Amino acid sequence: MYGKNCRKLPEGILTGKHLEYNEIEPDTKFYCDGLLNDREVRVSFILTRKGFDEVRNRKYLGILMQSDVFQAEWADYEIHEHT
Predict the structure, then answer these.
(1) Are 60 and 76 in contact (CB under 8 A)?
(2) Residue 22: exposed, middle, or buried by beta-carbon count in 10 A (0-12, 13-18, 19+)?
(3) Which of 10, 36, 54, 65 is deepest in the core (most CB within 10 A)?
(4) Rounded to 5 degrees, what are φ and ψ at 34?
(5) Is the pLDDT of residue 83 over 70?
(6) In whole numbers, what is the pLDDT of the chain averaged over residues?
(7) How far apart are CA 83 and CA 77, in angstroms?
(8) Are 28 and 46 in contact (CB under 8 A)?
(9) How confident is the model over 49-82, as pLDDT tens digits?
(10) C-alpha span between 60 and 54 (Å, rounded)
C-alpha cells in the first residue's frame, strides 16, 4: 500500500501491511493486517455509503488500489489481536 498506508485512529496510528476482501459491495467487510502502536493487529472495517461509492467508482474505472480502500471513509471498525 506504499505511502498511503497509515491511518489515524483514536487508539493510535494504524500502519497497514496487507488488505483483504472478497468483493466490493455496500456491506463488504475489509480486513487489514498491520501495526497499531508497534503491535501486530488485524482490523476489520466497513465503509460508509460515501466511501463505498468512491471505491466502487475507482474499481469500475479499473484504477482501484488497496490504499484507496484503506483511505476511504469507514463506518465502523474492530481491532483484533494478531495471532
Answers:
(1) no
(2) exposed
(3) 36
(4) 180, -160
(5) no
(6) 92
(7) 18
(8) yes
(9) 999 999 999 999 999 998 999 999 999 999 998 7
(10) 10
C-alpha–C-alpha distance, residues 9 and 44, integer Å: 13
Instruction: With cut-offs at 50, 70 and 90, classify the pLDDT of residue 1.
Output: very low
pLDDT of amino acid 38: 87
Residue identified by cell 460508509 is 48
DSSP of the chain:
-GGG-EEEETTEEEEEEEEE-S---TTPPEEEEEEETTEEEEEEEEE-HHHHHHHHHHHHHT---HHHHHHSPEEEEEEEE--
Task: Name the grid cell of 20.
Answer: 483483504
pTM of the entire predicted model: 0.89
Q: Which amino acid is at 15?
A: T
